[in-house]
Design a protein that fits this description.
By secondary structure, this protein is of the alpha+beta class. The protein is built from twelve helices and 14 strands. Strands 1-2-3-4-5-6-7 form a seven-stranded mixed sheet. A hairpin with a 4-residue loop joins strand 6 and strand 7. It is globular. 31% of the residues are buried.
């Protein structure tokens, strides 16, 4: 905690030439217990503006929507500005914090203080010089396989049988993972072997900012007359894993190739809006069947990625609870 405060003070001095001294806020007892249990609070003056730092007690990263809600509760007890201070934040959540207009400082990386007219985006430490994009579907499938089955040694030929991609496609996926620093490849005999040095939890945390939603398109259809390969997804799957209420119409996921085959053997009727007995179908850029569970539900990691942009706070809270249940 003290080192984070020192980094904050140093960051202000180096970037804005502001000398700031933080001190514990004496009015902390006026806050609800859950806020005092989650954060420590320090008062500081910035450009003659009284500010209160909300410093998380642990490294668990709350969703920006929840942080904003908590900040508003603190704001009611403080005359001045409130700033979220943290040692690190994912690229995705940085964007969401800005969208939520949440003032925050990540010492050494970014300072977003719109009430003071400050938005300093430093040079973020990156694996490679160019800003990285998102993983290709095949590369993401490799990471998901490792998350679900445990990081171990993988070869293109072995994974080709398990994931349904060609050896050449998986060789490119290995190269992509190496370029992002998410894995390493060694040569054993004639085989290239991919190894992950991280455990599952660390791999998820490090790879998440490079991973994309698997959903290419969402449509509403009438139920197919013949059996099809859809598995529960979206809010239906989230309701399966948590106490969230099920949606009024079921949500299914189907891979792009399976969707094309399905349309050849079924008279698919797309609807402009939901109606009784209809289905919502998510067309994925990789097959959800690769990672589905015993109850024909998509895997938690893909589900999280498919709903991470949902603005409903109930959905975000349910996603966090679902991920807390993962056995790492």
């Amino acid at each position: 905690m003290k080192s984070l405060l020192r980094d904050f003070e140093r960051h202000l001095k180096e970037n804005l030439d502001i000398t700031a001294t933080t001190k514990k806020w004496e009015g902390v007892d006026s806050l609800p217990f859950f806020l005092r249990d989650s954060y420590t609070f320090y008062a500081v003056s910035l450009l003659n503006t009284p500010c209160l730092l909300m410093v998380a007690r642990d490294n668990h990263e709350q969703t920006p929507a929840i942080i904003r809600k908590q900040m508003l509760q603190v704001q009611a007890k403080w005359v001045g500005e409130v700033i979220y201070l943290c040692s690190s934040v994912s690229a995705y959540n940085r964007k969401r914090l800005i969208e939520q207009k949440v003032p925050f400082v990540v010492p050494g990386n970014q300072m977003y203080l719109p009430m003071l007219g400050i938005d300093l985006r430093e040079h973020f430490r990156q694996i490679r010089s160019a800003a990285p994009g998102k993983l290709s579907p095949s590369t993401q499938a490799v990471v998901l396989h490792a998350l679900l089955h445990g990081p171990k040694d993988y070869t293109p030929s072995r994974l080709a049988n398990q994931l349904g991609y060609t050896v050449m496609t998986l060789t490119r996926a290995f190269d992509e993972l190496v370029s992002l620093g998410l894995g390493e490849v060694v040569t054993e005999g004639r085989e290239r072997v991919l190894r992950f040095s991280d455990g599952k939890k660390d791999l998820w945390q490090r790879s998440r900012e490079f991973m994309r939603s698997p959903v290419k398109r969402r449509i509403i259809i009438r139920p197919p007359e013949q059996k099809w390969c859809g598995v529960f997804a979206g809010l239906t799957a989230l309701a399966h894993f948590t106490l969230l209420a099920s949606p009024s119409i079921p949500v299914y996921a189907v891979g792009l190739d399976d969707w094309k085959s399905m349309k050849l053997i079924n008279a698919i009727v797309e609807l402009p809006a939901a109606e009784p007995q209809s289905h919502e179908v998510e067309i994925w850029n990789y097959s959800p069947l690769l990672f589905k569970g015993e109850d024909d539900v998509v895997d938690r990691f893909s589900l999280y990625l498919s709903l991470q942009d949902n603005v409903d706070e109930r959905v975000q809270s349910a996603l966090e609870k679902m991920m807390e249940q993962v056995v790492w």
